[in-house]
Structures are given as structure tokens and as C-alpha cells.
Specification:
Largest sheet: 5 strands, mixed
Number of domains: 2
Radius of gyration: 20 Å
Helix content: 25-40%
Distance between the termini: 62 Å
CATH architecture of the largest domain: 3-Layer(aba) Sandwich
Shape: elongated
Order of helices and strands: HHHEEEHEHEHEHE
Strand order of the largest sheet: 4-3-5-6-7
């Protein structure tokens, strides 16, 4: 019916549309899914969003997402503190952890240097990474930023800062296709990329 409009539904669709990669049709499907939830399910759904916003913070060491001062990886004493894998996004940590191959720690940059988008070195967690070198435990930093122009530039910028500190800096081998996001890489590809990393 032309001009048919339910304000609350339109607002719900609009909120879903604001999510990355969600178009109008997908947003509409999600909105109708929510409408068909029971009152208890809808309440649980809404509460989980609020709880995530309220409880999740950045790990004080690696800047990954955590509900405590230290994330589960940083607080695991079995992890190898001498190796840090630097990634762009918390989702990349999840991707590496799926491989069960990496025993070290992580550092999440929360972005890459991108002058075109107004993102400079001070806008990502480079300062926090450098401060982790102070105790002398770290011997190798693996640059695992995405193989994009910005990812490469960020890796090179950080490696130039780390080299004078006497830390070995390596880069993921290109088992990961250029232009791809680590988040979508399979376990075998990521494992090969880790094994074939090179010194920068």
C-alpha cells in the first residue's frame, strides 16, 4: 500500500541500516525478526546490547576487548610474552585464535594510519604498543595488519619505531591475499602466513 509507514518500525529499520554492510533489505529482515521475538526474548536482546556497551572495555595491556582489567589472553600465564602479534581489529585476534597455532600475545591497534580518512599515528594505539617494550621481555613483534596500502604503511611506520629498540620485527607472509581482511581468512591460510613471516 503506497505511503504505508509505521514510525517505530521505520526507526528500527533505520538503526539496523546504520550497521556496516547492512543494506535496506537486510535491515528490514532484522527489524521483522526483532518484532517476532517474544517480550522476554526482546528484553534479553536489548539487555545484551546495553550490557555489552556497559561491561566491555579495552584491555589495559593489549587494547583488545575485555570485561576485566586484563583480557583472558593477557592474563594467561602460559602465553609467550616474548612475541606480540599486532593486528588492526579485535576480530583479527579471534581469527588467529581459531588457528590454535599462535602462543604469544597480541596488540590491537583499533585502526590503521590513513591520512585520507584523517587517521594519524596518535589516533591508534601505537603509543601503548611502544610502552610494552619497556620491560625488555618482547623479542619479536609480528606485524599482522591487513595487506592493504594503509595496512602496509602502518606496518612500516611501526617497524621503524621498533627497530631502534632492538626488537625483531616481522611481517605476515602473503598466504593472506592482498586486499583481503584477516577476519575472513581460513585457519590454514593464517597458519601458513604466520609460519612464513619475514623480517622487516
Amino acid at each position: 500500500m503506497a505511503g504505508y509507514h509505521v514510525a517505530s518500525l521505520a526507526k528500527l529499520i533505520e538503526q539496523f541500516e546504520r550497521m556496516p554492510g547492512i543494506g535496506h533489505k537486510s535491515a528490514q529482515r532484522m527489524a521483522f525478526y526483532v518484532l517476532h521475538l517474544s517480550e522476554a526474548e526482546a528484553k534479553t536482546f536489548a539487555e545484551s546490547i546495553l550490557a555489552a556497551r556497559e561491561n566491555i572495555r579495552r584491555c589495559s595491556r593489549c587494547c583488545n576487548l575485555s570485561e576485566a582489567e586484563l583480557c583472558p589472553i593477557c592474563s594467561n600465564t602460559a602465553r609467550d610474552e616474548s612475541v606480540i602479534c599486532v593486528v588492526e581489529d579485535p576480530r583479527d585476534v579471534i581469527a588467529f585464535e581459531r588457528t590454535h597455532e599462535f602462543e604469544g600475545l597480541y596488540h590491537v591497534l583499533h585502526g590503521v594510519i590513513s591520512p585520507m580518512n584523517g587517521v594519524g599515528p596518535e589516533d591508534i594505539t601505537i603509543k601503548e604498543l611502544l610502552s610494552r617494550m619497556a620491560d625488555g621481555k618482547v623479542q619479536e613483534v609480528i606485524m599482522a595488519t591487513n595487506p592493504t596500502v594503509e595496512g602496509e604503511a602502518t606496518a612500516m611506520y611501526i617497524s621503524r619505531l621498533l627497530k631502534p629498540m632492538g626488537v625483531k620485527v616481522s611481517r605476515l607472509a602473503y598466504g593472506v591475499p592482498v586486499g583481503a581482511d584477516l577476519e575472513y581468512a581460513d585457519e590454514v591460510t593464517l597458519t601458513r602466513a604466520l609460519e612464513g613471516r619475514r623480517i622487516l
